[in-house]
Design goal:
Elements (H helix, E strand, L loop, with lengths): L5 H18 L5 E6 L4 E6 L7 H15 L3 H10 L1 H7 L13 E5 L5 E8 L3 H14 L3 E2 L2
Antiparallel strand pairs: 1-2, 1-4, 3-4, 3-5
Amino acid sequence: MTRITLDQANSIIAASFAKGSELGLKPLSTVVLDAGGHLIAFQRQDGASTLRPQIACAKAGGALGLGISSRKIGDMAAERPTFIASLGPVAPHGVVPAAGGVIVVDESGAPIGAVGITGDTSDNDEACALAGIAAAGLKPQA
């Protein structure tokens, strides 16, 4: 597999929302980007705040841009805050250094896209991203 299909992207979103409902989370917003950072699909649950699309894209796009999850970008920000802060203006979607942006890989480990979720705590956002990826039969970056 070399890409995430629209059907898979929609499955990721549906499963991420289902996981959020199961956990009793706040309204989520989920984006799925292709390997080049282009939008495949996005949905925002009723009641989600208005900046959530941009945050979700920045989590997913930042992960793709640096080749690591947005959780790891957050860890990096603690060590190199000036570097991470400087990425916002040069990254097409921005960079949000908090969990919830997960790279999706193919069988060989090559990135085929990313999922970004926002709306609850970053740990819960990431749990929903991983649930969505698994439900679509895809694999997150290790």
